[in-house]
C-alpha cells in the first residue's frame, strides 16, 4: 500500500503520523491499498483551554486503521510492526529520514507479513506524539477465527494525555535543565478527559453496551511516559492478547499498561446491573 503524508501547517512534521480513516476493509489478502494523510495544525479545546495541536486528517486522536495481513503501507513506523527489508519506512526523525517539510509530501511503501493484532501509530519526532497517534488493528485472515469466543463488537480504546502548555516547550525545558518534564494536566480516553476534570462534564467517552454481550476492547497506552491502570466497575476483564501476541486467557479486575503497550481484553456485560445512566462512562484509569 502506498500512503502519502502531507505536511501543510508547519516545518518538520516528519511524522510517522500514519493512520487513515477508520476503515473496515474487506479481508482480502494480497491487495494494495492507498491512504492519504493530511498533517496540519488545528485548534482543540480541553479543560477550559484551547490551543493549536498537530492532527492527522483533522482528528484528535488520529483516525484508526483496521486491515488484514497483506501488502500494506499506511505509515512510516508503528509500534510492533516488523519492517522487513524496508527500514527506510520506519519513521524515526534523523535516523531513517529527515522530517517532512512544510508543503511537501512523502510516500511510504512497505508490507506487513505474518502479523495480526492490536498496535498503534504515532508521530516520531520530539513530543509531537503527545497529540499525533491512533490505533492500528490487523485483523485475522478471512476464515481464520479468533482463538477465543467471537465478540459481539470490537472497540478501540486509546489512553492519552492532555497538556495545556505547548508540549514542545515542555520537553525543551526538560532537556535544558536536566530535570524531568512537567506531567500532563489530564489523562484521556479516546481524546476525552472525562467529567472529573474542569470544563469536561460533557467531554467523556461513553461506550453503550447491551446486557449479556461480549465486547473485545483494543486497549492502547499512547501516553508519553506513564504507566496506566484500567478496569470497569463490577466487571472482570479477560486478557486475550498483549502487544499483538495471543496469550492464554486469564481474568482480572484491572490491568496495567506501560507506555506504548497494547492489550486486548474481553468484556462480558452482566445481564442485570443498576447504573445511573443507560451508558457506561469509561472515564477513569
Automatic annotation (TrEMBL):
The organism of origin for this protein: Gossypium laxum
One CC-aspect GO term: apoplast
EC code: 1.10.3.2
Gene Ontology BP, a term: lignin catabolic process
Name assigned to this protein: laccase
Domain Plastocyanin-like: 78-141, 154-272
Enzyme superclass (EC): oxidoreductase
Any one GO molecular function term: hydroquinone:oxygen oxidoreductase activity
Subcellular location as annotated: Secreted, Extracellular space, Apoplast
Keyword DNA-binding in record: no
